[in-house]
Amino acid sequence: MSTFTVKDGTQIYYKDWGTGQPIVFHHGWPLSSDDWDAQMMFFLQKGYRVIAHDRRGHGRSSQSSEGNNMETYAADIAQLVEALDLKDAIHVGHSTGGGEVIRYAAKYAKGRISKAVIISAVPPIMVQSESNPEGVPLSVFDEIRKGTAFTRSQYFYDFPIPFYGWNREGQTVQEGIKQNWWRQGMMGSVLSHYEGIKAFSETDFTEDLKSLDIPVLVLHGEDDQIVPFHQAPKSAKLLKNGKLISYPGFSHGMPTINAETINNDILAFIK
Asked: How confident is the model at residue 1 (pLDDT cuts 50, 70, 90)?
């Protein structure tokens, strides 16, 4: 099992397969690198070196009581990238991981990144405020905090239903995917998951997005019930070199249940 110890002693678990141009995958809340199986296998077979880590407090990484914030998440990945000496890397992030990619690219990449892809991602900022009236009310995140902190096992068992859009007419729950989501979530630290809600909902990525010169592909499902679709055009507009692809009817979990479509669109962008 490959692990890397960052400066504060936290161990970060990661997978590193293949050779060629590196693609680094950043998972969403409250999951792990296992959520990228369909992408890791696809891009490995296309000749890329594929790397995915478990964020601190998630999956097999240390259950750190400190650093459960976006700045530390980005700093952790920067240390891993430097330790592996990755250059000309493509960074792909889903949901919270999309925010992590943007913060990393803006503040820590130091020329090591060539392109980025953010999928169903949290930037520019999720929470509602006077300056972001279209945002999600804080009360919604308070409910997520309550469910995570005190009834996590059941809450995480139910959460995949809207996550994958299985509450829509004509959709059928895919039990294996649902249980795998629960498995990934329950591997992590309840404290890290609880504190991570603030990280993904209240971090403002506006200036990070504006600062980027690299090409960034923004992918978002129009029926995303977790991160509202209107986030995506806002991010694309703030980027100097952004491209938006939207998917009618696709859910928040589209990298898993619509993997073929998502993988091919990423491949076309990075080739």
From this structure: confident
State how far the Cα of 245 lies from the Cα of 114, in Å rounded to an integer.
19
The predicted-structure confidence for 211-237, as pLDDT tens digits, reads as follows 999 999 999 999 999 999 999 999 999
Residue 7 CB-half CA count within 13 A: 9
List strands edge to edge, sheet with 242-247: 3-5, 11-17, 49-53, 22-26, 89-94, 113-119, 216-221, 242-247
Mean pLDDT across 67-88:
98
- Token pair, residue 205, equals 């990525």
Angle (deg, nearest 10), helices 96-107 and 190-202:
70
3-270 is a CATH 3.40.50.1820 domain: yes
What sign has the CA pseudo-torsion 187, 189, 22, 93? positive
- Our answer to whether residue 95 is catalytic in this structure is yes
Enumerate the domain spans of the chain.
Answer: 3-270
State the catalytic residue, choosing from 61, 62, 64, 95: 95
Among the options 34, 64, 252, 265, which is catalytic?
252
The overall pTM is greater than 0.85: yes
Q: Is 33 a catalytic residue?
A: no
Active-site option among 35, 76, 208, 224 = 224
Tokens of 20: 């060629």
Give the residue among 40, 15, 156 at the shortest CA–CA distance from 94.
40
Give the HSE-up count for residue 126: Cα atoms under 13 Å, Cβ half-sphere: 24
**76 flagged as catalytic:** no
